[in-house]
Each structure stands twice: as C-alpha cells, then as structure tokens.
Please model this.
Amino acid sequence: MFYEIRRYQIQPGRRDEWVRYMEDTVIPFQVEKGMSVTASFVDEEDPDGYVWIRRFEDEQERTALYANVYQSDRWRDELDPKVKSFVLADQIKVTRVVPTSKSALR
Model:
C-alpha cells in the first residue's frame, strides 16, 4: 500500500473556489470511479497552497484507477479543463509514500 501526497499551487486568490470545486465535484467523481481519497488540506502558511492525499493498494490498482478516472469522457470534456483553469500545472508536486509498520495509516 502507498499514498500519493499531491501538492498544488492554485491561481492567486482562487483557493476557496478551488476547494469548493474539489470537495463538491472532483473528489466525489474520483471516489465514484474507485479512488480512495484520504484527506484534503489547505496550506495554513500559503494562501494559494492545497494538498490532498490518495491511497492505493499497489501500482496495478493505481494504473487501473488512473485510467478509469483520467480517460473517462467526463474527465476529459468537463473536469480537466476546469481543473487546469485553477491549478498552476508547472508547480504540481506528487510524492509517493509508504506508511511505516506502526503508522495509523496502515
């Protein structure tokens, strides 16, 4: 099992709007498609920072879920263009982490 910690920089001044879109549209859509979204955060020290975490059992599951979400018509036609209007794509940072043996997230 591993997690993706995804850190985004949002267009200046649009973070509240972004959080609403993520929580009302993007996260529910991804969960409906099988993703496990563990958490969603705003950065307390950066007014345009946003972090979210997803969990995968293994690389095979991640690959299948990515295809299920990102190759869907709704993602390509509706969600992706809107996401791109909020996120500074060149500043996306994705870190894959594995919980330690005593982690509460195992």
